[in-house]
Amino acid sequence: MERFWLVLLLAALCALAAYGLYVGWRRRARRQSDLLVLPVEPAELGPDLVDPMTGLYISTTSAGDWQDRIVAQGLGRRAAGAARLSAEGICIERDGESDIFVPINDLVEVTTAPGIAGKVMGMADGVVVVRWSLGAKKLDSGFRADDTDQQTAFITAANALIAQTRGTETPSKGAAS
Predict the structure, then answer these.
(1) Burial of residue 52 (number of CB atoms within 10 Å: 0-12, 13-18, 19+)
(2) Which of 89, 122, 141, 149 would be 104's cystine partner, CB 3.0–4.6 Å?
(3) Three-state SS across 81-128?
(4) Tens digits of residue pLDDT in 126-176
(5) pTM tops 0.90, yes or no
(6) 121: Cβ contacts below 8 Å, ≥ 6 apart
(7) CATH code matching the domain that covers 53-166, chosen among 1.10.8.110, 2.30.29.30, 3.90.920.20, 2.40.50.140
């Protein structure tokens, strides 16, 4: 009978922990409710400038703060998918979730980092980080590519497109701060 009460206590503690996680996630979403509405993907995207980068969308955080996950508007949910680069911007297509479209004028830079909220890799270039603006708020969206050659080509093409759009030099490859 003593074992029954211990198992029941453990089950109650697990349920309480799960409830705490749920409440925390909802509270964070409420705090971030002032986030502007995400840009709408154009009906017709131009041709891909490089092969789509397949992999795993990890999360979006406040720029420079890789632990401050943005959960509002579904940005905090991890999903397999692909990142596409076209003249209009970057579209992160997520399986089972809504796509994230970043217009070219909102892109700041595309680089790599060892991690972002939800995933930390053991290598400096383990996560592709797309830094972009949503109104006055700067965001970092993390994507783990299946193929590092695709990742390198994607980053190079994206930064060249950003530089061309702004009429500046291509940013050098480095870790996001």
Answers:
(1) middle
(2) 89
(3) EEEEEECCEEEEEECCCCCEEEEHHHEEEEEEECEECCEECCCCCCEE
(4) 899 999 999 989 999 999 999 988 999 999 999 999 999 887 655 554 444
(5) no
(6) 114, 115, 127, 144
(7) 2.30.29.30
